[in-house]
Amino acid sequence: MxxxxxxxxxxxxxxxxxxxxxxxxGANKDDFQADIYQCIxxxxxxxxxxxxxxxxxxxxxxxxxxxxxxxxxxxxxxxIYQDLRKLESVVWTL
Length: 94
Fold this sequence. Notes:
Elements: E1 18-27, H1 32-43, E2 52-56, E3 62-71, H2 74-86, E4 90-93
Antiparallel strand pairs: 1-3, 1-4, 2-3
Helix pairs in contact: 1-2
C-alpha cells in the first residue's frame, strides 16, 4: 500500500531519470513565481529560469507556474511536491 495523494506524481510509465513538468497554482501575486522557482531550485539546482512557464487565469486572479525539472527518482519528485505544498501561496499542485 502507498501513501499517494491526488497531488503525488505517479511513477507508473516513467523511467527515471527523466524530465518532468512540476506545476503549482496560486494567487497572482508578485512573489508567487519567485517562491515556486526558489523552492524547486533547492531540489533541482540545475533548473534555469528558461525552464519556467507561467500562465495567468482567464480572470487574472491566479497563476499557474510550470517548471521542467530533471527528476532523478520518484522520491525526488515527492520531495519537491511536499515542499511546494508547505508554501502558503500554493493553492494546488499538479
